[in-house]
Amino acid sequence: MTQSTDTVWSEPVSLIDRIPRSVAMIGLFVAFVALWQLVVVSGLVSPIILASPWGTAEQLAYVGHNLLTGDYMLTALWITIKEVVYSFALAIALGFSLGVLVGETGFGERAVMPYLVAIDTMPKIAFAPLFIAWLGFDIHSKVALATFVAVFPIVVGTAAGLHAADEHARLLFKTMGASRLQTLLKMKLPTGLPHFFTGLKIASVGVMAGAITGEFLGGGKGFGELIRVAASQLDTARVFSLIIYLSLVGLATFGTVVWVQRRFVFWQKASVGAEALP
Amino acid sequence: MTAAAAAGTVYELRNVTKVFPKRSVQALDRVDLMLAQGSFASVIGASGCGKSTLLKIMAGLLPPTSGSVVLAGKPVTGPRRDIGMMFQQATLFPWRTTMENVVLPIEIRDGKAAARAKHGEAAALLELVGLKEFANAFPNELSGGMAQRAAICRMLITEPAVLLLDEPFSALDELTRDFMNMEMQRICMARSATAFLVTHSIQEAVILSDVVYVMSPRPGRFVEAVAIDLPRPRTLEMITTPRFGALVDRIRARLDRGAFL
After folding, report:
1. Do B118 and B234 fall into the same domain?
2. Does the complex come out with an ipTM higher than 0.95?
3. pLDDT tens over chain B, length 261 residues
4. Are residues B249 and B164 part of one domain?
């Protein structure tokens, strides 16, 4: 027998693994829209409850045109964007400071942390009426609520990051005679950056939810108010399209955090993405 | 190399005792130790025998309960720049290049400008350990052995009077470990460094040391100082010689009696 002893056999690959990701995603989208259209056209669900895909597409074009021409919707969107940016900045400043207090000092860890945990377990959205009562119907109450929602993940991320350094790194800094500030700045903070950014990513989602909730409950002239008005007019197609534009703002915020993380935490090769979504 | 004993004492511990009152544990009991200039000493013992406590006291990270700890004529009362230390993990910081990691002790003690001024010396050290090409690489591009070489450079950059080595290569695979031990000998001889090694490995202690202190636990104390009379430079081939085997056996016998009760 001179037959080759090489054993060549192909590993079975399941059908779904052979489909490129983009094709799978588009396929699912098309199937979803087709089902949606079918449900609406068949008359199973009233168009008042569920707008048709086509109606939504029309509204998307309408809202898009309104935004591009700088009409009232752009003004509303701009207000919401301002709320998101202000509250995110506030949440970062406040969350980072509290995180350092809690993660670095014994006082913070023992006295402040229990209160933070207690407040964090509360349903924060329920505070919205209070913020409106305290700060009025203008942008301030929305910024306050969004900051309140977003600050805790940043506190936790920062504090966890400060504890992330291992025993050897601490010992090394001690043997080098490093001061507490040096240890914080040159070791603990850089080591904790990945945790900090995880907190930021969670917060970037929360900030949006907080701002829109504030607008739902407290009125004003933001994008949330547009959604509320459209919903009260039973214009579900308009609601869908507004939500889609709003989600672009959320994506941009999240994307900015990911981009900044890639630049600042360049040594962390692991991909940064969905793992931070709540 | 054994003649180095005549060259003067660098590090001296007398009657060092350490008690942890909270846990009511006596970690060290009247430990005496003399490190001669240019000598290499090891301490060997089972886990929990007080080796780490001893090393922390020698590094100025922990005060002794009683006894005197004197390095280069001055009592050790805290971390000092003339004490170099190395751990099981290389602990290089991934946001700093190899070069920046090496000059970190200078940056901490004297600031960024002083650290920059030391780049030349750091480059020479990196060349000594064979990492010349990796000065500007980041640690995640280095292998485990290479990372430990960089850690050696970081330890040497302050020109310490004594090197304290806390199982520096025990996280490496055995082949790399043997090789790194020979590198360590070469580097110590090249700089006539005084070194003190804590290890679990009898073989490692014997191949590197001029004297091996056998430690027994509860309370931690030296039960014997075994002089290693193998010629320098040591080679890995010596491991198979009868003399090497005899020394290993003798240390193991002492450990068996006291250490694992």
Report:
1. no
2. no
3. 344 444 588 888 888 888 888 877 878 888 888 888 889 999 998 777 788 888 889 988 889 888 888 888 888 888 888 888 998 888 999 999 999 999 999 999 888 898 888 888 899 889 888 888 898 889 988 888 889 889 988 998 888 888 999 988 888 888 888 888 888 888 888 888 899 999 888 888 998 899 999 888 778 888 888 888 888 888 888 888 888 888 888 888 888 665 454
4. yes
Are residues B23 and B53 located together in one domain of the fold?
yes
Q: Do B76 and B169 lie in a common domain? A: yes
Q: Which two tokens stand for residue A93?
A: 């400043």
Cβ of B109 within 8 Å of Cβ of A187? The answer is no
Asked if the Cβ–Cβ distance from B109 to A267 is below 8 Å, we say no
Domain shared by B178 and B52, yes or no? yes
* Closest partner CB to A168 (pick from B80, B81, B87): B87
Domain coverage including residue B150: 93-155
For residue B83, the chain A residues in CB contact (below 8 A) are 175
pTM to 2 decimals? Answer: 0.82
Nearest-neighbour CA in chain B from A275: distance (Å): 22
Q: CATH for A70-276?
A: 1.10.3720.10
Return the HEC string of chain A.
Answer: CCCCCCCCCCCCCCHHHHCCHHHHHHHHHHHHHHHHHHHHHCCCCCCCCCCCHHHHHHHHHHHHHHHHCCCHHHHHHHHHHHHHHHHHHHHHHHHHHHHHHHHHCHHHHHHHHHHHHHHHCCCHHHHHHHHHHHHCCCHHHHHHHHHHHHHHHHHHHHHHHHCCCCHHHHHHHHHCCCCHHHHHHHHHHHHHHHHHHHHHHHHHHHHHHHHHHHHHHHCCCCHHHHHHHHHHCCCHHHHHHHHHHHHHHHHHHHHHHHHHHHHHCCCCCCCCCHHHCC
Q: Could you state, in order of their start, the residue ranges of all structural domains in chain A? A: 18-45+52-63, 70-276
Half-sphere exposure of B247 (CA within 13 A, CB side): 25
Contact A177, B80 (CB under 8 A): yes
Shared domain for B29 and B73, answered yes or no, is yes
Q: What is the total count of domains within chain B? A: 2
B164 and B41 fall within a common domain: yes
Asked whether residue B110 falls in the same domain as residue B74, the answer is no
